[in-house]
Amino acid sequence: MAPKRHNARDITPSAAATTQAGPTTAGTVPATAAVTKPYRVSVTTKDSWAQVVGNVWSHYLKTTPQRTKLIDVFMAFLIVVGALQFLYCVLAGNYPFNAFLSGFSATVGQFVLTASLRMQTTEANKSDFPSVSPERAFADYVVCSLILHFFCVNFIN
Amino acid sequence: MKSFLSFSLLLLATLVSAISSTGDRLLAVLDDVAEKATYSKFLGDLESRGFKITYETPKSESLSLFRLGERKYDHVIFFPTKAKGLGPNLTPNLLVQFLNQKGNILLTLSSEVPAATSLVSLLTELDITLPSDRTGLVVDHFNHDVLSAADAHDVLLLPVPRPARPDVADLFASGAPADTPIAFPRGAGVLLGAGPLLTPIVRAPATAYLYNPKEQAEVLAADELFGAGAQLALVAGMQARNSARLAVVGSAEMLSDKWFDAKVTKVGEKKEVPTYNREVAKRVAGWAFQETGVLKVNWVEHRLNEAGPGANVSNPAMYRIKNDVTYKISLSQWDWDKWTGFTVPANDDLQLEFSMLSPFHRLHLAVDAAHSSPEATAYTASFKLPDQHGIFNFKVNYKRPFLTNIEEKNTVSVRHMAHDEWPRSYVISGAWPWIAGIGATITAWLAFVAVWMFSKPADARVVLKKTQ
Amino acid sequence: MHFSKSLLSAALLLAAGVAEAASSWSFDDATVAVVSKKAGDGLKEKLNAKKPLSKPVTIGSSDTIKITLTAKDNGSGKRPHQAFVVLKDVDSGLEAPFPLTTKDTGKAVGQISQKEIPVQLLLATKPLQASIVIGSFGSAHGLNTHLFDLTVQLDPNAPAPSTEKTLRYAKQPEIHHIFKADPKNPPKIISLVFALAVVATVPALFLGWFSLGANLDHLTTALGKAPLSHTAFLGSIVAMEFVFFLYYSTWNLFQVLPVVGLVGAVTVLSGTKALGEVQARRLAGQR
To answer: Is the domain of A77 the same as that of A141?
Structure first.
C-alpha cells in the first residue's frame, strides 16, 4: 500500500536525527562518530537541517489528504489562539484566573479533541480503529466539544 | 418597640422596689447597736434614700449573710468593732461568697480600733494591704485641721477627690463647691495592689504618712515606714468582675455626725469652712451600693448598611465578607433614683470590636442622637466587614473604673462571596482576550463542523492518490 | 503657701534671730555625697534650704547617695517625727519617700542606693527631683523644699530594668482592618490588542481553509438527500451554542438544563441520520 511505502521512506531522515543526538549523549567525539558512520556526516551541517525540514514538509504536502490538511489548519489555528492567550497571561498577569483557565483550556481541549478526531479519521490509521467509522468519530467529537464548551462557558463566569 | 416596652416596665419595677439598682436590704455591723447614734445622719441619709437597714453586732446569733443559699442582704456596711474576729457568721470565706453573689460591702477602718482579722483577710484576698498590726494613723504635718488637731495633726484636710485619670468618670467631685475640704479624722490608710479592679478614691497628700501611734510615737524608724504620700489610699474602691463592689473608708469617724457638721481651718489660713464629708459619704456609699455608676445595655442592633433584600433585617445571623454594616447599642446609667442616658466620660471612648479570636476592627462608637432618649443613649458605628470569612463577634467590652462592667457579645457568621456575587467576566477588562478566545474557538469549531461535513474534495491530485 | 512662709520665717530667724509666734522647722549642716563602691567617695556638696543645687547629682549603678543634715526647730537641734527625702519624677508625678534615720539631736542620716529606687523612677527621662520633708507634731511649721536634682546612670552592661505594664481598664487604640488590595486589571489597551488578535485568527483560519480548497459544495447535495436531519443537526448545534451564550449572559443553570436536554436530543436523533448521509457520500467516494 502507498502509505506504507511512504512511511518507509520517511524513516530515514528522522532516524538520522535521533542517531545524531545519540553520540553527544554518549560522550563520544563527533569525529569518531563521523568515522564509524561516514554516510551521516552530511546530516550534521546546518544546510542539511533545512533540507530535512524541507523534505518532511514536501512529503507532508504530497501525501496528506486534503481533508486531513483542513483538520491540521484548524489545529494550527487552535495553537495560535492558545499561544496568544498564554502570552497575554504571561505579559499581563493571570487576573481573573478563572477566565484564563477557561479560555485557555477551551482552546487546548478543542485541540486535543480535534487531534483525536484526526487520529480516528486518517486513512493511514484505519487499521488501528477497525470498528470506528469516521462518522462515528465525528459524532463523538461533536458531543465532547459541546460538553467542553459548556464547561468553559460555565467557568468563565 | 418591644424592647422599649420591656425597658419601661423594668424602669417601673425598679422605681417601686428600691432606690439602689440592685436592692435595698442593708446590713450594718456595729460593736453596739447604740453606736448608730454616732452615724445617725449618714444612716439617716441611707434610709431616706430607701434602704432598709438591719443593725447587728458580730456576736449576734441571728446574724447571717445568707439564707437557704441566697443572700439575705444586698449590701453590708462594717463599722469598726473592738473584737479581734467577727465570729463564725462573717468569715472571710462568707464575705467573698457574698461578693461573688453580687453583694456589696462598705468597710470602714479606724486608727483606734484594729480591723477585725476577718476583714483583713478579705482585704488581703483582694490585694488591699493593711499595716501589719491591722491599723495605723495617717498624719500630715502640712495638711491638717488647725482647729481640732493643731498638735496631733491627725485630722487631715483633703481636697475633693478628682479622678486620677482624665478618662475616668467623675462620680465623687462633680458639682462640689470649691474649697470645701474633706475632713479625714484619725484614719488608717491602705496600700492597693496593681490590679485593674482596685481604684483609689481618695489618696493621701504627698506629705502624709502612716505610723503606729503606739510603737512609733517618738521615732519612726527609717525601715519601718508602711506608706507615705499618694501611695496611701484613704478611701478606695474595688469592683469585682461581676460588678459587685467593695469600698474601704479609712476613717469611720469621717462618716459621723460630728464631722458632717464640723468647721475646719487649713494650715496657714484663718477661714473656717464647712466640710464636704456628708456629700462624699453619700457618694462613696452610693457608689458602693450600686446607686451610681451602674450601666446597663437596653438593646443591641446590627444590620446590613446596604441596599438590597437583607437591608431591613435586624440582627441577622449571617453576613458576607466586605458587607457594610451598622451596629447600634443603647446604654443607660442608674443615677441615684432613675435611669438616664449614659454619656461616656470626656477623654474616654466606647469601642466596638469585631473579632474572631483577636479583633479585626476596634472602632469608636459615636452617639446616635436619633435613637437616644433621656433614659437611654444610643451609640453607633458603621464599618465594612473584613475580607475574612468565619465566626465573628460584635463585642462591646466596656470596663472602666467605677462603672459596672459591660461585656456585650453578638455572634454572627461571615460567609465568603457566593458564586454569583463576583463581578462578571465581561466587566473585567483583563478577561477580554480569554472571552475572545472562547468565542473564537467556538466560532471556528462551528465552521469546522460545517466544513467537515460538507466540503467537496477539490484537490484532484489528492483524490488521484487516494484512488491509487 | 506655707512653704514660702516657712522659708521666709527661716530667713528671718537666721538674719535677725527674731522669734515668730509659730516656730518652724529648718535644717543645717546638710550635705549630699555620692559614695561609690569602686572609686571611693565621689562628689560631696553642701545643701541649702533656700536654693537647690544648680548641678544635678549623678548616681551610678553601684553608687549610694548619702544625705546628712541636722534638723532644727526654731534654730535648735531637735528630732522631727517626719524626715523624708522624696524623689519625684516630674513627668509622671510619681514619688518615692526615703525616711532618714534621726537622732535626738536632730541629726538625720539617709542612704539611697540605686537599687532601692523604684524602677519607674529609674526609667524617668528627666532628672529626679529630690526634696526634703521635715515635720513633726506641735505648732511648728513643717519644711518641704527642693534640695537637688538626681540623674540616674544605669549600668550599661546590665539589661535595662523594665516594668511590666500594669493592666488598666481604659480605651484601647483603634484597629482598622487592612483589606487585601483589589486585583488590578492590566491596561485596557493591551487586553484589547490581544482580544482583537485572537478574533483576527478566525478570518485567518478561513483564509487558510480557502487556500486549501475547502468549500461547502456538498451542502446542497446533503440538503437534497436529507433536508430535515441536516438542518436539524446543524441547527441544534448552533442552538446549543446559543443556549450556552444565553447561559453566559442571562440564564441560570435551571433554565439552561431542560433546554440543553431538548436540543441535545434533537442533535442526537438528527445526527444519526445526517451522518448516515455523510457516510453514504464517503462510500460513494465523494469525500
So the answer is: yes
CA distance A119 to A64: 13
In total, the C-beta contacts within 8 angstroms joining chain B to chain C are 181
Whether residue B333 has pLDDT greater than 90? yes
Q: Which domain holds residue A27?
A: 2-63
**Percentage of chain C modeled with pLDDT above 70:** 91
Q: Is B366 on the interface with A (CB under 8 A)?
A: no
To the question of domain C2-152 being in CATH 2.60.40, the answer is yes
Which residues of chain B lie closer than 8 angstroms to A103, CB-CB?
431, 433-438
With an 8 Å Cβ cutoff, is C38 touching chain B?
no
Are residues A28 and A40 located together in one domain of the fold? yes
pLDDT digit string, tens, across residues C85-108: 899 988 888 888 898 888 888 888
* HSE of A86, CA atoms in CB hemisphere, 13 A: 10
A118 and A41, same domain (yes or no): no
Taking all residues of chain B, what is their mean pLDDT, rounded to a whole number?
A: 88
Do A58 and A80 have their domain in common?
no
Mean pLDDT of B408-426: 91
pLDDT of residue B3: 52
In this prediction the ipTM stands at: 0.77
The pTM of this model reads 0.78
Work out the pLDDT band at B15, boundaries 50, 70, 90. very low
Give every residue of chain C whose pLDDT is below 50, as ranges. Answer: 1-21
Average pLDDT, chain C: 84
Looking at residue B252, the DSSP 8-state letter turns out to be G
Residues A84 and A139 in one domain: yes
Per CB-CB distance under 8 Å, the chain C contacts of B141 are 81-82, 135-137, 142
Boundary residue ending a domain (A63, A82, A108): A63
Using a CB–CB cutoff of 8 Å, tell me whether B446 touches chain A.
no
Q: What is the pLDDT of residue C183?
A: 86
Are A142 and C282 inside 8 Å of each other by CB? no
Q: Is B417 on the interface with A (CB under 8 A)?
A: no
> How many angstroms separate the first and last alpha carbons of chain A?
52
| Pairs of CB atoms within 8 A across A/B | 92
What torsion do the CA atoms of B141, B143, B147, B152 make, to the nearest 10 degrees?
-30
- Cα separations in angstroms, C55 against B13, B430, C46: 68, 72, 12
Closest by Cβ to B441, choosing from A81, A95, A138: A81
Decide: B105 and B78 in contact? Cβ < 8 Å. Answer: yes
Closest partner residue to C212 (CB to CB) among A66, A142, A154 is A66
Same domain? For A46 and A78 the reply is no
**What pLDDT does residue B271 have?**
86
Alpha-carbon radius of gyration of chain B = 35
Neighbours of chain B (3+ CB pairs under 8 A): A, C
**Interface contact B438-A149, CB threshold 8 A:** yes
Residue C40: exposed, middle, or buried by beta-carbon count in 10 A (0-12, 13-18, 19+)?
Answer: exposed
A49 and A85 assigned to the same domain: no
Residues A48 and A70 in one domain: no
Query: In this prediction, what percent of chain B has a pLDDT beyond 70?
Result: 94
Q: What is the pLDDT of residue B7?
A: 52
Q: Rounded CA gap, C205 and A78, in Å?
A: 9
